[in-house]
Design goal:
The chain is mainly beta. The protein folds into two domains: 15-20 and 145-280, 60s Ribosomal Protein L30, Chain: A, CATH 3.30.1330; 24-143, 60s Ribosomal Protein L30, Chain: A (2-Layer Sandwich). 8% of the residues lie in helices and 52% in strands. The chain has helices at 35-45, 187-197, and strands spanning 15-29, 51-60, 65-66, 68-70, 78-80, 90-102, 105-115, 121-126, 137-145, 147-154, 159-166, 176-181, 203-211, 214-215, 221-222, 228-239, 242-252, 258-262, 270-280. The strands form four sheets. A 13-stranded antiparallel sheet has the order 3-8-7-6-2-9-1-12-19-13-16-17-18. Strand 6 (90-102) and strand 7 form a beta hairpin. The radius of gyration is 18 Å and the shape is globular. 44% of the residues are buried. The mean pLDDT is 97.
Length: 282
Amino acid sequence: MRYLKHPGPVAAEREQSARCRATQLSLRLAKGQSVNAAITGTLANAGFSAGHVHLENVAIWPMRYVIPAASPDDSHVAWYSETYAPDGVVIIERAGVIAGIRDGAPFIHCHGIWIDEAGNRRAGHLLPHEAFIAEDATVRAWGIKGANYIARDDAETNFKLFAAEATGHEVAAPNALAVTIRPNGDISLAIEALCSRHGITQAQILGVGSLNEIEFDDGRRVASYATEVFIDDGRIFTTDGRLQSQLDVSLVDLRGAIHSGRLMNGQNPVCVTFELLIVTDD
């Protein structure tokens, strides 16, 4: 398995998870707000401070984003590119968002694919306070109670990263698992192990994160040690008596190239972090 040595001490706990109750929502994002304010504000109005949001066909202006890049020094294994600022209205083709709390305020982590005014298809990590909703839009979401994603300083990676944590408030009939996964473990195997421990046999898997190179199940390989990934369609199910995860993802690599496909199980280690919401089929 490919391995990246991060600058800090390796944490003993490789995954964090918290049971929660997920509720499916339709959110109306208002023109003129930052993407961060629009998403977290509508979630709050619905009674939620955390969850997952799927963006599709959302107009953005101005648009600001970054892609993965080599770290300028040894303080991180990877960093971010310069900020890209395309002219005109950009349309988010699709994107995944994890919403939580950072520095005491609502915050989102968004990876996606978008099309600029010239028709160029690009992808990356959206800068949530610098990109704005250009037209009112309705999007699909899951709001969660009983868990949250709280940004914490992480000694191992030297980044401030979302950590999935229980809120301390019990919820009736939990149907979901908020998860964050640390570097170097395979994403599929980690999901299968977590679901096994929590008795989850059928569920939808949502989330965003980064992987160290990519191996798709059709034999394609993306030789990029840092990537920005979001899950297009993820499932956990039982086949031949064992749990199996199936992750269809899209991502951007260090060169800015976009790739999509189904991950090969057991061959895709996390680069820095992966944030997940696993929602059961009950």
